[in-house]
């Protein structure tokens, strides 16, 4: 009798422990799910930044634009230094970037309008390049050419933007533009699609016409 | 417009720039980005499935897209947009016989309402058909996607989809 009671007692304790472990496990999973949700909620658009002037500029503004040499779609080397004395907009874009396609016609218009004053746009493509495989590399380049043609881009398109990304602060949002004045200083920067008016204001700033 | 765009771009960075590094040109974006480890897309479940060995078996893979963002569907409307795709490593003991992606939802950027994109937002499910050899296989599949918000895009990105597949 005593032995039966002991066995039943042990079974009850074991079952209790198992239940406790199950409950603890469920709690852990619940907490993990809540943590995941909380983590994801951090990705919600944050309006607080909109009124903070700190977000409207860049630490690179006021500094010399980092120099670079890239290749254009014709295979020719192009350096930022080649544009000394001109106002330049470095427009970081990619063929897969839908907002860039909206911005490009504005840029084409603005480039035509301000070119006589000494303004140039350099489009820097961030499309992936399979550098280790000549066939794939040729295909990648052809796709960039196709993308630029489809958008009727007349200004120079440079490839391999990734190679200068670090110098410009690890650009990871497209479109991004840096506006460089005639002395080679970055006077404005934009990240994401703004408006034609904003772009024009920054171009005028680079030309020394605006604030 | 400028403020909206910057705010939106900022949020995109917060959402996606888990690997943001010092020297970010956009000021204190860095501090926000470094506080967030989230990516645009998160794999939800299942973590483990048991399927009949050597037979095609349906497995639904569930994903979540961070609020405020969208990714191209598996069938974008134009060739230049990067579709969402799923791949399994070849030598994992599990083969992806088929992956049925949901249809995308038509979406237009506010500034260009006429041009429709085919995108996923929120949660979406890929109906996969797996063929597993007998035994247990820890499979690290890859979901590749390209995310944007209303004003800016991030480069294409891949996330691991880790599933313990047991073929019985």
Question: In words, what does this structure look like?
Answer:
The complex is a heterodimer of chains A (211) and B (168). Chain A has 211 residues and is of the alpha/beta class. Chain A has 5 helices and 7 strands; from the N terminus they run H-E-E-E-H-E-H-E-H-E-E-H. Chain A has a 7-stranded mixed β-sheet, covered by helices on one side. In chain A, strand 4 (119-125), helix 3 (134-150) and strand 5 (157-159) form a beta-alpha-beta unit. Residues 32-55 of chain A have low confidence and may be disordered. By secondary structure, chain B is mainly beta. In chain B, the strands form 3 sheets. A 4-stranded antiparallel β-sheet of chain B has the order 1-3-9-6, with no helix packed on it. A 4-stranded mixed β-sheet of chain B has the order 2-12-10-5, with no helix packed on it. In chain B, strands 7-8-4-11 form a 4-stranded antiparallel β-sheet, with no helix packed on it. In chain B, helix 1 runs parallel beside helix 2. Chain B is elongated. Mean pLDDT of chain B is 83; it is low at 1-7 and 16-37. Classes of the chains: A alpha/beta (211), B mainly beta (168). Chains A and B meet through helix 1, helix 2, helix 3 and strand 7 of A and helix 1 and helix 2 of B.
Attribute tags:
A: about 210 residues, alpha/beta, Glutaredoxin, 2 domains, 7-stranded mixed beta sheet, B: about 170 residues, Immunoglobulin-like, 4-stranded antiparallel beta sheet, 4-stranded mixed beta sheet, disordered N terminus
């Amino acid at each position: 009798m005593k032995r039966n009671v002991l066995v039943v007692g042990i079974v009850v304790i074991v079952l209790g422990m198992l239940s406790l472990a199950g409950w603890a496990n469920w709690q852990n999973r619940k907490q993990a799910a809540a943590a995941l949700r909380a983590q994801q909620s951090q990705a919600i658009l944050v309006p607080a930044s909109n009124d903070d002037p700190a977000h409207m500029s860049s630490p690179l503004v006021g500094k010399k634009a980092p120099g670079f040499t890239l290749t254009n779609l014709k295979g020719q080397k192009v350096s930022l230094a080649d544009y000394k004395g001109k106002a330049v907009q470095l427009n970081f874009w990619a063929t897969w970037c839908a907002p860039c396609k909206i911005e490009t016609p504005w840029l084409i218009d603005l480039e035509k309008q301000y070119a006589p004053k000494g303004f140039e746009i350099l489009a820097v493509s961030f499309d992936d390049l399979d550098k280790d495989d000549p066939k794939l590399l040729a295909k990648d380049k052809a796709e960039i050419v196709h993308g630029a043609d489809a958008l009727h881009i007349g200004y120079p398109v440079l490839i391999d933007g990734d190679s200068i990304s670090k110098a410009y602060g690890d650009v990871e949002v497209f479109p991004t533009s840096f506006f460089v004045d005639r002395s080679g200083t970055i006077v404005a920067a934009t990240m994401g699609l703004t408006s034609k008016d904003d772009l024009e204001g920054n171009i005028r700033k680079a030309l020394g016409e605006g604030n | 417009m400028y403020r909206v765009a910057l705010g939106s771009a900022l949020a995109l960075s917060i959402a996606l720039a888990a690997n943001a590094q010092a020297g970010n040109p956009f000021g204190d974006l860095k501090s926000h980005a470094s506080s967030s480890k989230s990516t645009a897309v998160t794999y939800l479940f299942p973590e483990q499935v048991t399927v009949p060995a050597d037979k095609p078996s349906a497995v639904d893979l569930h994903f979540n897209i961070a609020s405020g963002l969208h990714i191209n569907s598996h069938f974008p409307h134009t060739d230049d947009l990067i579709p969402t795709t799923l791949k399994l490593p070849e030598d994992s003991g599990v083969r992806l016989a088929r992956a049925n992606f949901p249809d995308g939802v038509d979406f237009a950027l506010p500034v260009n309402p006429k041009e429709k994109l085919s995108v996923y937002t929120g949660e979406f499910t890929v109906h996969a058909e797996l063929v597993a050899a007998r035994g247990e296989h820890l499979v690290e599949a890859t979901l590749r996607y390209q995310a944007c918000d209303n004003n800016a895009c991030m480069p294409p990105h891949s996330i691991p989809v880790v599933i313990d597949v047991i073929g019985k």
